[in-house]
Amino acid sequence: MTPLDRSVPPRQRSEEWYVVVPTSDEVVNDRRRTWSYGLDDTWFGGSVDSRWFHDGHIIANHPALPSWIRHANGVLNTAPLEDRFLDEGLPEHRATAAMLSPVVAYAASLLDGMCADHPVAITHGARMDMLRGLHRRAIMTLASVVADELAAWKATCTALGMPASTPYAADETTWPDMVERLPMLAHVAGTLVTHWLEYVAELLSRLASDAEALVELWPGTGVPAELLRVSLDAGDLHDHGRSVALMTFDGDRRCAYKPKDLRIVERTLDLFERLNAAADEPLLHIRPMVLRPGYAWEGFVTTAPCASLDDVALYYERFGAMVCMYEHLEARDLWLDNVVASASWPAVIDMEMVLQPRMSADAGIDAAERYAQHMLDESSLSTGLVVMSFPVGEGRPAEDMGALTPLRPFRTPFKARAELTGEVETGSDGHVTFEHPDYVPVFDGLHVDVRRWHDHVERGYARMDDLLAGPLHAVVHEWVLAVDPDIPVRSIHRDTWTCQRILQASTTSAALLSAWDRDASLNRLVKVATGTTKPGSVEHAIILSEIEQLRILDIPYFLTPVGDSGVRTSEGSSLGTVYDGAPLRRCIERVEHPIDPEFRRDVLRASIAIGAGGREDRPLMVDVAVEAFDPVGIIHTVARRLVDLTIRRDGRYAWIGAVRHAMLATTSIEVLRPTLLGSLGIAIALHEARAVADIGDVDAIISCVTQQAMREMGSANAIMRSGAALPAWVQDPLEGLPALEHGLAILTDGRYGRTRSFPMPDFDLADRVAIFAEHGRWFPERQLPERFDLSAVNGLAAIVRLAVAASVRNERVTI
């Protein structure tokens, strides 16, 4: 067998163009065990063909032969690029460019023919940009392999007594040798080139068809004559390697090419234009667009500085209005990478993320918890425009990348190999970092400090909210009723960074040792899901689709029609119903029956307070010496406040509050879980408070939380019995089983659970009580709104328990 024969993925070995040969049962069974990751066939979507695990060979020139085989063979038979080409085209990291140059050189040999006789002249600079795009794809996909090869080269130099500075040498034997050792490298390289060629060919074909129509993006100009520059992959790779491309034509005319169905963007821009006209003022940013079936050309949003401080103020007021509008449209994933500051305009450049589907609530939670979650889902919290926390590694602080976060280098979960130093930016801990200044307005040559402009954001939000409820209400209502329910929107099931990490793990040297090792690296997704997913379920179908998309180097991409609750692949295949109702129906209900505006405005203030942009903006705690106060009075005031802030539905109770996640060093606004740091802690405070003060009838609240805690304890025990990996919260002393047992023992007078001793965290009680005593309120201006500071014992409940202890001792409290 040749290395190319060995590179065929398991499922393709049953195709007519591949001839299997007799292989021993021992080898077949060993490969099957590796591939399946210890799972039976039902987990892999049906019957498993034994031919997948046999050796065999490719039938050359078979009419059904996949393109990746032809292109992989082309790469293996292409010499590395000349030094001149490396200097001109890929100068960033010479050794990496040299190693990957056969991939680029083979593609370059085909590109000239694709560009010949094009009605828009494709300049040499644009062609070089396209090849750089392929190089970036290759290094992103094969970073681990490149690092391993460079490390081996350095070790060889050392062993032979050669200088450490000896440059890496690539020749005609480099790729054949690597593929001999790592057969699946051929499949990866062939897939990379196939997708890139098809993507570029499609882009050029569409440009030829639409060149005359593009003048709509630049009124008053002529048909573009030259494509000067093109930046490929200005977004993730989806749907067989397609991605956004930023294009520059003669006359410095720019646009964005987006190869996806963007009818929802066209509809949203239409709404914004109607609202601006009805208000007789420019409230929301709009841009021109040429819509085509399955793709679109959008006007390019250029960064530009603010001309004055008045422009900065206008920018943030418009930002607040934009937050309010996208909240009404239930937009998601609008983090800083999707926002551009263009003078006094904030602009979202990825508008396809409106009318997003919503996952069904956990069937086990009660009516009050479900409604509390619904309230949060209806707010701006989930848009990502204000705050959006990205986990970047266990034990490392999460990174706030909401579009109101201060400008700085942003950390990612990706660790850079030392051999690739210079290829990517890294922080002091070796993790990859990136900078994206485009989302921050510029004034007087400097990026604006967002923390000085929060009031303008809140003012702009409130004004837009009033307009949408008043004079602009009819415009939105008419628009939403006319939206075509068959228009699809993207639905995200797994965040991009996680998908990228899975993809990179499937292209390491170890994963490319054989076809079965690579599949096993992807089948881990199924293995991880066995504790929570059933074979044949919609969730199971989604995971299998993710694996198929990751196998061909795509970030998984799913669609949902706005009038539906199902999920589909990019090709339109239905995977089943998974969402809680239809996004369009929910938008209609939101327009006709909006959630309490004061609650939503508090969520905005809370989002600002918990984000990276809200910290240094907060005043310090008021320094007041409080010698004594009336404990019973404090108990009564605080306990009644805890009761007043409950969310009630069908005789059930819940709270929304700020939750501190110690492992991620971040705070989020959530429906409180029944833990000592959540509703269970509040119930304990009420239970103890009623023993010493008249706080009214709280029996129903305490009974409800007791049932919620017992439900949570049952879930934790079920996870432990299943043998699945335990979530971190199960063993947490303040949130897991120990805390549940302790709280239940208190609330039920020992009938359930058992009391334990807990090291309680520092609650800053002195500061909190001092502020209350001096001002009659809990927090200075611009801190977390009162209704959300219910993170149990580290908030109001802690003060209740302190006062209870003082009352029992019949003494006044000295802080």
From TrEMBL:
Domain annotation Lantibiotic biosynthesis protein dehydration: ranges: 183-559
- A Pfam family annotated for this UniProt entry: DUF4135
Q: What is this protein called?
A: Lantibiotic biosynthesis protein dehydration domain-containing protein
Native organism: Candidatus Kapaibacterium thiocyanatum
